[in-house]
Amino acid sequence: MHELNEDFELIKNFIDGNESAFNRLAIKYQEKIYWHARRMTGNHLDADEIVQEVLIVLYNKLKTFEFKSSLYTWIYTITNTRSINYLKKKSLKNIFSLDDITNKKFEQKDVIDDIESKQKVEKIEKALQKLPVKQREVFIMRNFDELSYEEISTITGKSVGTLKANYFHALNKIKELVKYDKF
Amino acid sequence: MINSEEKFFSYLKGKMNSEEKKEFEDELISSDNLNKEYTEYKKLNSIIDETKNIHLSKDYSESIITDFRKRIESKELKRSFPMIRYAFASIIIIFIVGCFLISQLNKENPDEIKSLLTDFSEAELNSFSNNYVYSTDIANNIDDAGFIRLDSIYRENLSESVVESIGKKSLEDILSLSDVANVDEYLSDNEVDIIYAQLINKEIL
C-alpha cells in the first residue's frame, strides 16, 4: 500500500512538471526492467536497449496511466511486450545482416561486479535461451519474479491453461539441463 | 505434475498456511515419487534464487538515467522542427494531387467529340471553335473524317480571325506585297498544322 502511494505521488509530481520524480521512478524500476529484458534476450546489449525503450514509453505514456493495475504490472507488461518485439525484430535482422557478430564483440561490458554472480547469470542465460520465447517468458515470470498464473495472464493476455502448459514444457526442459549439469 | 509444481512453488515461496504446509509435508513423506520431484525442483529453485537478487554495478545503474536523458533531449530537438517536415510533406501531397487532377481534366473522350460532330450543326461548331481554345489532343482521339471536318472549320476561322485581328485593308496590303495568298502551294500539311498550333498557343484562335 505504501509502495502504491509512493508511486502515485511520484507520478503526480511528474505530471505536474517535476522531472526528478520521473528519475526516481526510473531508478526504482530500472533493475526489474533490465533483468526481465536480459533474461528474455540473453545478453546485456539488447537488455540495455530495451531498458531505454521502456523508459521512453513510460516517460511519454505515464500521463495516461489510470492505476487500473499496479505500476509494477504496467511496467512489466511494457517490458515484456518490448522484449518479445525486440526478439522478433532481431531474428529478422539476423537473417539479413551480421548483427549477431557485432553484438558479441561488444557484449563484454561489465554490469555485474562479482565474478561468481556473473558466471551464474551466464549459465542461467544459456539455459533460458534454449527455451522457445513463449515458454521462456512464463518460466521467467514464474520463477524469477514469483508471479501467479493469474498475474502472468494479466500481463501476457494468455489464458491460465495455456500458461500452465507452456510452463510445464519449460520446467521439464530446464530440469533436464540441471539434471545433466548442462547448466 | 502441474499441481505438484504449484505446491512446490507455494511451499518454497512461503505462500502456504500452516495447515497446507503440514499436509504437503505429510505427502512428501508418504510418496517417494513426489519427494524425488520436489528434490529436483528445489535444486532448480536454489540455482534461480542465487541469480535472482544480483544487483547491477553502480556505474551502469547511474548511466541508465544519463543515457535516457540524452535520448529524450535528442527526441525533443527533433520534435522542435516538426513544421518543416509537415510543410515538406504537404507540398509533395499538393503537387501529386494537382498533377493527378490536371491529368484527369485534360482527358478528352473521343466518343463525346464524335457525338458533338453529329449532334451540332456546322454553324454551332463554328461558334464553339471561335470561343474555345483548340486542343492538339483532339487529333489523337477522333477519326480521320472528324479531323478533316474540324480542320476545315479551323481553317475558315483562322482566315476570319486574321482578317478581324488585322483589318481587311491591312490584309489586302499584305497580300499585295508578297505572294502569301498562295502559301498553301509551298507549305506541307504538317507545316500548316505547326503554324496553326503556334497561332493557337498565342491565343489568336
How does this model look, in words?
The complex is a heterodimer of chains A (183) and B (205). Chain A contains nine helices and no strands. The termini of chain A are far apart. Chain B is mainly α. Chain B is built from twelve helices and no strands. Classes of the chains: A mainly alpha (183), B mainly alpha (205). Chains A and B meet through helix 2, helix 3, helix 6 and helix 9 of A and helix 1, helix 3 and helix 4 of B.
Number of helices of chain B: 12
Distance between the termini of chain B: 95 Å
Whole-number radius of gyration of chain B?
46 Å
The SS-based structural class of chain B is: mainly alpha
Shape of chain A: globular
Overall geometry of chain B comes to rod-shaped
Helix percentage range of chain B: over 70%
Report the mean per-residue pLDDT of chain A as an integer: 88
Topology readout:
The complex is a heterodimer of chains A (183) and B (205).
Chain A: H1 2-15, H2 19-41, H3 44-61, H4 71-96, H5 99-106, H6 115-129, H7 133-143, H8 149-156, H9 160-179
Helix pairs in contact in A: 1-2, 2-3, 2-4, 2-6, 3-4, 4-8, 7-9
Chain B: H1 2-12, H2 18-30, H3 32-52, H4 58-79, H5 82-105, H6 110-119, H7 122-131, H8 138-141, H9 144-166, H10 168-177, H11 183-186, H12 189-201
Helix pairs in contact in B: 1-3, 2-3, 9-10
List the keywords.
heterodimer, A: 183 residues, mainly alpha, 78% helix, B: 205 residues, 12 helices, rod-shaped
Question: What's a concise summary of this model?
Answer:
With 183 residues, chain A is mostly helical. Helices cover 78% and strands 0% of the residues of chain A. Chain B starts with a helix and ends with a helix.
